[in-house]
Amino acid sequence: MFGEYKTVVLDQKEGIVISTKSSKSVLHKYTKHVLISGLSLQKSIARILGLASFHSISLVHLVFFSLHAYSKKNTDWVGLHFFEDFDMQKNSITFKSIKNQYTLSFDNTNPCIHKRISDSLQHNDILSRITHRYHESISWSCPLNSHKTGSMIFNTDFYKPTDALISFNFKHVIDEIIHDWHYIYICHVAREHDLWFLRDEHGYFYGRAMRNRQNY
């Protein structure tokens, strides 16, 4: 069985699902074809916020947490939105589902797993605030507590929002990400066509693009 099947998924509705594709391959397909901008947008926000231990996919009301980072051949992922608590015992971690219907345990966990979970939940909280502020700006009522189900992803006992992040200027985050993407695009064009002077003119192109967008 283990020679042919490489991925096992425990699904709340479908039960045990097995696949011949590796977990890394499944993750790559999901992030590339489902997520907006893949993982690049999420990683950019984490970098700007200084969340070095961020190891998750944040979808506001869903948070998929990686126990062994993204890049390893075999990875373990947990949907934190199904769980209300977790417990550490030496080198193992056990997640307890909402209303204690079941538990899920993993061995050989990272010693910094608490920090990783905290930063991942903080990251999702920031994305939630950004999303809800956008909804409010277009008059689409969506209360911050609309996704609260008793899971740990909105329980601040598992992460401590710092004053700097609570009052963080979200416009600054987005503007910096847009700037990075403009620069990546300019560098790609410069490399593709051997026109490296375009990279030096990045400030001019970026300034004009942003000014036109803001005027519009």
Automatic annotation (TrEMBL):
Species assigned in the record: Lactobacillus helveticus CIRM-BIA 951
Protein's name in the database: Uncharacterized protein
Keywords per UniProt: Membrane, Transmembrane, Transmembrane helix
Keyword Transmembrane annotated: yes
Highest taxon in the source lineage: Bacteria
Native organism taxonomy: Bacteria, Bacillati, Bacillota, Bacilli, Lactobacillales
TM ranges: 45-67
